[in-house]
Amino acid sequence: MPKRIFPFRRGEADRTADAAEALGLKGANLALLASLDLPVPPGFTIATFAWREAKGAGSELPQALRAELRSAIDWLEGVTGRRFNGDAKPLLLAVRTSARVQMPGLAESVLDVGLNDRTVDVVAAELNDAAFAYRSYRRFIESYAALVLGADPAEFEEIADLDRERAGYDHEPETVAGWRALIARYHEHIEAELGAILPQTPLEQLTAVVAASFASWRNPVAVAHRHLQGVPENAGLAVTVHAMIFNERNQKSGRGRAVSRDLASGQSRLSGEFTLGARGANEIGHGAPVHDLSELAAGGQDGFPADLAELTRHVRRLEAHVGDAVEVDFMIGDGALFLMQSRPARRTAGEAIRVAVELVAEGLIDEGEAILRIDPASLDLVLHPTIARSADLVVLGRGMPASPGAATGEIAFSVDRVQARANEGRPVILVRNETSPEDIHGMHLADGVLTIRGGTTSHAAVVARGIGKPCVTGVGSLRINAEAGTLNAGVRVLKEGDRITIDGSSGEVIEGAAALRRPALTGDFARLMQFADRARRMGVRTNAETPAEARAARAFGAEGIGLCRTEHMFFEGDRIQAMREMILATDENGRRAALDKLLPIQRSDFTELFEIMAGLPVTIRLLDPPLHEFLPNSESEIAETAAMLSVDEAAVRQRIAGLQEFNPMLGHRGCRLAISYPEIVEMQARAIVEAAIDAGQKTGSTVVPEIMVPLVSLRRELDFVKERVDEVARLVMAERGRRIGYHVGTMIELPRAIVRADTIAEAADFFSFGTNDLTQTVYGISRDDAANFLSTYVRQGILERDPFQTVDVDGVGELIAMAVEKARRTRPDIMLGVCGEQGGDPASIAFFEETGLDYVSCSPFRVPIARLAAAQSAIRFSRASGRPRARRHDA
Ligand code: PEP
Ligand code: MG
């Protein structure tokens, strides 16, 4: 039979292995403090088992529990030298509920159980303080009535107000007779209005309070929290009962919160605050001045009502035991110090890193432990970009700084638009009048959020802070014109797709893409990253195509480029015209002529990337998207393109219509383009090989490019493209009289490629899992249209999370594992990576570690997150499996 009651006192505590589960957070914590010989008030915890046995019943406690309660009280009477209902030194108790996780909605603490019409006078005499004793009794009656009898606290306030008017005192009765009269009114009210009486027997009071505390498990707020946190309904709560500490009694009493460290510096130095007791009638519960503990600690003991050195010693002892900065709630009753509760010190993301690094330096924890202490997602908060200030910034408006960091991106008025643009790898700012839960998916995908309405606690602000996205709210000077699809700032009119910059730290909204500056990754941050790099097995690369992205990624520690989407290089300046010329050409010669214009552009782009990456691996993907994405949309662009090509506008329109596809993402794209138009592959292969030779010569480091074929489902598709690449490479090397190494591999993003991974691997030097397309094709869900209904799926609990963000382990994940196994069977040394969005998602990274991939590749700003998440995954994997895994490849 599991134990129902667990007693504790300084130096002695019955503890169970699953302490929090059995004793609740408070009970487990007090037991821990007691077992470390730290001063805690003596008491006992009624375990969750007893709650389950009582079926959480409200009114009557089971007989067995009542009997054990009686024995526990006997024990407590012995330990404290006080007696329930005693004629001298009556025992008074505090009753507190807690569950295994923080759970708002459970019963509030009830203090001074044991006071009645008689013991109140005994306490008054003992302390020589009638006002204190009666104030406590009054508070007890009020909490008892609220918890046990369901009374509204306002009723008692009304009675007290009436009494004050009648008796003519200021705050509270000034004589014992006055107090007695007030208490008598309370009793009358309970009898007349609540149909009950306040038990005068302390044990009866205690059983009623425990029973009502049990019942608070069913409070709607607690129920809602359980659902949110996934706590089972029968987990139950624990009730901790301990001797009262008269911390509000006199100038030698008080309460406070002590933190073991100065979190800003990480140094071991007591900080926190305290207030003195002796609250007067006019400041019950609040208003007492707060003193800074760290000032006191620096300057001596003055004004602190207990032994400060003793407090410091206790907090240090606790910190050393848990190996983390701790925060302790303490109480002081007439000079005697008690620790009431402790928890890991609450800290900001930056402080968490500071403390973890410092604890390693002090030898309190090892590097692995420090790595596990930091939430990878929190790095986003530390790495907030700021706007590089310049004179020509055009400020469109100012709102509330709702979530810190600056972001720049295209205006998107809808979640659909955000999703579509983000899928293309473009930065986006979601711009709404206000956001609602339907927008959360879009907020995740967007780089920043701007709302016209709302303040710092609006939905947008709360969600953005939660997910670490820059957010500006309440920019009243801006207006969304939904019909015209514009954002109006006075006379300035911006369209969807135009770029803006928001600064969630200042509240500014700026026209265009302002230059952003990232904080230097030095000091503690760099140390943490060093720890992570030593611990991780997987390489971390980046998805980058512009020199700026590549440089940023290197600064963040990327070990190569895992995905260079060449199509992004075709959009700027006159490139797009050459691209359009190629697409609109009616024969191969026409296409080759246009490709000749693109060749030098691509070559110089690649050369620059290779130079920046200085010999690190660079994976360049051959052209992937359907061609219509490059064609003009607006009438003016159509006219411009027609003029440039010296053809009729009608002919351009006709060609555009001809390229329309019903399902472009399942259409003429990826390697299918290469097979229809091998000359495109030839141009790209030439540009890559020539650039590798050029960059190798310039920098002196060997460049071994990785050429990646997208959207392969058949081995023969890969063979076809690889033959073209090999032929061009041979030619270029002969022309240049230089030899270089290069690899040809493929993206794995279609189910057929998974099934045939063994055969495809025979022809591929590497695989890179494109989890964006793979998720789309495995689910049969369009990545561009999913936002419409995926949020409903998540809300309804049909999906736990968006499978485009975090790998769906059971479905898509299982397929990835299958492909890994098959590929290694036919080609044991094949390099395996992932370059879909999930490459930067910590939960997905854990899965990729388990699957044994060689690297993940993610957007530049997620590289530090991926480094840390990869380290955590490696540590957890080797702890769970009992064996560390070696790296198979460099990167
Ligand atoms: C993918 O499909 O996961 C991928 C990385 O390619 P893209 O997003 O460019 O289709
Ligand atoms: Mg893809």
Short description:
With 891 residues, the chain is α/β, with parallel strands linked by helices. It has 33 helices and 32 strands.
Topology of this structure?
Layout: E1 5-9, E2 12-13, H1 19-35, E3 43-46, H2 48-53, H3 63-80, E4 93-98, E5 110-113, H4 119-127, H5 130-149, H6 153-167, H7 176-194, H8 202-215, H9 220-229, E6 238-243, E7 254-259, E8 271-276, E9 290-292, H10 293-299, H11 308-322, E10 326-333, E11 336-344, H12 349-361, H13 367-373, H14 379-382, E12 386-387, E13 395-398, E14 400-403, E15 406-412, H15 415-423, E16 428-432, H16 440-445, E17 448-451, H17 459-467, E18 471-473, E19 478-481, E20 486-489, E21 492-495, E22 499-503, E23 508-511, E24 516-517, H18 523-535, E25 539-543, H19 547-555, E26 561-565, H20 575-584, H21 588-613, E27 618-621, H22 635-645, H23 649-659, H24 671-676, H25 678-699, E28 706-709, H26 715-736, E29 743-748, H27 751-755, H28 757-763, E30 766-769, H29 771-779, H30 787-795, H31 809-826, E31 831-834, H32 842-851, E32 855-858, H33 863-881
Helix pairs in contact: 4-5, 5-7, 6-7, 12-13, 12-18, 13-18, 18-33, 19-21, 20-21, 21-25, 22-23, 25-26, 28-31, 32-33
Bound molecules: phosphoenolpyruvate and magnesium ion.
